[in-house]
Amino acid sequence: MEDFKRKLQSVGIETFVKYFNVFKENQNESSNEPIFEEFNAKNEEWAKSSYCSKASGGKKIFRLKMEIETLDYIANHATHVDGHTKKLAAELLKEEIRLKRLLLEE
Fold this sequence. Notes:
Elements lengths: L1 H10 L1 H6 L1 H6 L7 H9 L6 H16 L3 H10 L6 H23 L1
């Protein structure tokens, strides 16, 4: 459990939820450039080093298959998280669980 929390700290809760699908789609890419393009499109004003740590950390959560555990933590256990972010995390969690069940049924 602690491993995903460390990764989540480097990404940021709101960033992980906001860019969840971008991290998911690019989890196996060696380059972070597609993620950086999304950050730029949303006018994120982070330092270059923050771009790197957020992109790498977000992808790592998926590569370690900890995205459901991370969303559950955000939606149901994290403190100091705004209601919109918690609600979006709960919606993403529900969808990810549905997709995992579909894959298991195949």
